[in-house]
Design brief:
The protein is an alpha+beta fold. It has one domain: Translation Initiation Factor IF3. It has 5 helices and 5 strands. The protein has helices at 3-11, 18-32, 73-81, 95-112, 137-141; strands at 39-44, 61-66, 86-89, 115-118, 123-127. It has a 5-stranded mixed beta sheet with strand order 1-2-3-5-4.
Length: 142
C-alpha cells in the first residue's frame, strides 16, 4: 500500500470514477479557458466513518494538484489562504519548477502559520493552521 492510499484510508477520502474526474476536468477547462494547466481534484472526508467529526461541521475538502509550471503556484497559495489543505504531486513537474513551487508554498505556509510534510519522493502535503498533521499515527493507535 503506497503512502497516498494510506492517507486516503486514514482520512477516508471519497474515490471518484474516471467519468466524474473527466467531467470535472472538462468543466474546469471550460471555466478557465486555457488560463492554467493545473489539474485539481477535490475530495471530501466521509464524516459517517470518522467519529471525531461533529455532525454540524462542514466536510473538509483536500485538494490534490499536479502543477506543470510555477504559474500554478498562485492557485495553490489561494487554496491555502482559504484554509484548504493541499497535496502536491511534483512527479511530472520539471525539477527546477518543482523546487520553485515548493519554496513558494513553504513561504506561504510560514506566513500562514501552517505546516508541510513530505509524503513520498515526489509528493508533499501543505496544511493551514486549521488542519493538524499527525505523524506516525499507527504508533499512537496501537
Amino acid at each position: 500500500m503506497d503512502i497516498l492510499e494510506k492517507i486516503k484510508e486514514l482520512i477516508t477520502i471519497k474515490d471518484y470514477t474516471d467519468e466524474e474526474i473527466l467531467a470535472e476536468i472538462e468543466k474546469e477547462e471550460a471555466s478557465q479557458q486555457g488560463s492554467s494547466s493545473l489539474r485539481i481534484y477535490d475530495s471530501e472526508i466521509n464524516s459517517a466513518r470518522n467519529p471525531i467529526v461533529k455532525r454540524n461541521t462542514k466536510p473538509v475538502s483536500i485538494t490534490i494538484a499536479t502543477p506543470s509550471s510555477f504559474d500554478d503556484s498562485q492557485c495553490l497559495a489561494d487554496l491555502l489562504k482559504a484554509e484548504k489543505p493541499v497535496i502536491v504531486n511534483y512527479e511530472f513537474t520539471p525539477a527546477s519548477e518543482a523546487k520553485r513551487i515548493h519554496h513558494f508554498l513553504q513561504g506561504c505556509i510560514a506566513a500562514l502559520g501552517g505546516e508541510f510534510v513530505q509524503i513520498d519522493e515526489h509528493s508533499w502535503v501543505y496544511v493551514p493552521t486549521n488542519v493538524l498533521i499527525l505523524d506516525r499515527v499507527s504508533k499512537n493507535c496501537d
